Structure formats: structure tokens, C-alpha cells
Amino acid sequence: MENHEEKVEDLTNESTESEAVETEEVVTEETVLTKEQELEQQVAELNDKVYRLSAEISNIQKRNAKERQDAAKYRSQSLAQNLLSVLDNIERALQIEVEGEQAEGLKKGIEMVYEGFQHALNEEGIEVIDALNQPFDPTKHHAVQAIPAEEGQEADMVVQEFQKGYILKDRVLRPAMVIVSQ
């Protein structure tokens, strides 16, 4: 009987050992699958980061290109803004009535300078805002006074211009200072 018990015990040990080996193989396979899944997840996360960074770089490049285009388009803006007061003074000088040959010659010289300024501004795309007898536009006009509309005159129309306004391409450099009818 002892032999039989030993054999049963041996068989039991062998079956436990084979179960342990099978369990170990299953655990190893699950571990391999889990590691594969982790690696696949990491790859997916890294791919997502690459796509996002690529899109961000593309957006930065587009934004930089737009900024360069705007800088080139509006390169003369600050210079023009500084020269507008000089142009205003030249216009005031031209409004003065003069007498005498020397004064007329001086005024003619000022007119030539004024025309040169106007030509240079036009070459850069800077134009005068046409305000007089136009509908009031708060993006282009700065109303300094409102007066009652006269008979036959529409409301919200520019009736007088104190100071010219200027526009560079599609950007207002200085709004026109105007009086508006109401």
C-alpha cells in the first residue's frame, strides 16, 4: 500500500507541477500581452504628440508668414503717422494769402513740397479719407461736434472737416476730425 500511496503522491506532485508550469505559461503570455498593449499605447500616445506638435509647428509657420506679410504691407505706417502733422502744417501754410513776388515764390515752393509729400504718401498706399458730405463712419471719422441738420440735409452726415484723416491700405492711420449733422 505504501507503494500505491507513493505513486499517488508522485502523480499528485507531477500534476501540481504541470499545473504550475501551465499557470506560469499563462501568466507569462498575459504579461507579454500586457507589455505589448502598454507598448502599443505608448506608441499611440507618441504618435498623437507628434501629430499635435506637427500641427503646432505648421500654425506657427503660418502665423509668422502672416506677420511678415503684415509687416511688409504696413512698413510705412509709423513714418506716415509721424509725418501727418508736418503735412497738416504745410496745408495750413498754403491757406495763408500772400502778397508780393517773393511771398508768391515761397508759396509756390511750399506747394511743390506739399505735392511731393502727397506723391510719396500715394506711392506707399496712404490715401486721404474722403469725409465731407459722406455718412458718418465711426471707424474713419472722429466727431468733435454735432449740429442740427439743416432743411433738406440728411442726419448723420459729415458737414465740416477740421482735420484730414488718412488710411493705409485697409488700416486707418488717423481718423478725420469732423462735425456731424443730427
From TrEMBL:
GO terms for biological process: protein folding. Residues 1-34 are annotated as: Disordered. One of its GO terms (molecular function) is unfolded protein binding. Coiled coil: none annotated. Pfam families: GrpE. Residues 1-10 have a biased composition (Basic and acidic residues). Belongs to the GrpE family. This is Protein GrpE. It comes from Granulicatella balaenopterae.
